[in-house]
Prior knowledge:
Elements (H helix, E strand, L loop, with lengths): L2 H17 L3 E3 L3 E2 L2 E2 L2 E5 L2 E7 L5 H11 L7 E7 L4 H9 L4 E3 L4 E5 L2 E5 L21 H9 L7 H8 L3 H13 L3 E3 L5 E3 L2 H11 L6 E7 L4 H14 L4 E4 H9 L7 E5 L11 E3 L6 E5 L10 E3 L1 E3 L2 H8 L6 H12 L5
Parallel strand pairs: 5-6, 6-7, 14-16
Antiparallel strand pairs: 1-4, 2-3, 4-5, 7-8, 8-9, 10-11, 12-15, 12-16, 13-14, 17-18
Amino acid sequence: MNWESEAASRLPHLLRTMLRAPVDILRRDTDGFEVDLAFSVGDWVLLFEIKGSDDIATLTRAAAQITPASRGQELGVIAVPYMGPKARAWAEANGVSWVDLSGNADIRGDGLCIVVAGNKNRYASRGRPSNPFTPRYSRVSRALLAHADRWWKQVELADEVGLPSGTVSKVIQRLDALELIERNEARELRARAPSVLLDSWAQRYRFADQAVRGYHLTARSGEEALRDLAERMTDARMRFAATGLSAAWLYTAFAGFRLNTFIVERHPVEPEALGLRPVECGANVWLVVPRDDGAFYAKVEQVTWCAHPVQVYLDLAAHPERAPEAASELRAQCLSWRA
């Protein structure tokens, strides 16, 4: 579909409905900035950058294009077919105004606030979209983020992550299409902007897709439970790595925690031998069997084994307590890359 034509057709009606005011189409260039569409609404001129998806990599590029045009009574807005929940959270965190062609919007300027929510995706497509962040495919992004400054030959990357070269080639093509990869003169590759790659992966990551079981472990504190269970799993020769709140605390010493989460290779047949009592609610331990062993990649010993900070950051999005603050601190201390 030609999204620019669709937007030119849909946006005037949507804006009139949202604002109950006349909407006039203007020129596409304004003070030297080229925009896809421009509308006059009352005292405001809304400048639209049209994109065909809400991929965070795509939104990041769009924001870089439209932000310089926002000044005075002129406001840059990104328009997409449908803005998903994680993309909306990203836009809010980055102060980006947006509208989707399904009828939702969050447009904010000095004295201007348009918020519309609840409309379903009218452009939902059948079948699975190409996704470079499936559990197996994400091995490529893990390596690119764990070694963000390294330039990789594609064959070296395939050997590193244990995937066939054809599979890695497919993943790289998709990452390249999202402009998440850059190459040097030797055609070696690395993440173009590691932070954007992480945001793009986090947008597609689903903690709940893994096999999660809740337990209660008797302990006076989250830290005592962490050390106790880690010691018991070591004695039982289990393969494990802390993630979530407890791992974030080990990396940053920020924010106390109650819930301990561990990635494990398989669920214990006799959890009682580890001091664990299965519970439906009130768990202070989550054991998680990931859908792919890549979750153990580049784990680090921090008192006990911890998943790599990238994995911990991804998992924190599904955690309670002070997880958002812990994720911000983890990113500031451990995931600060070149731009």
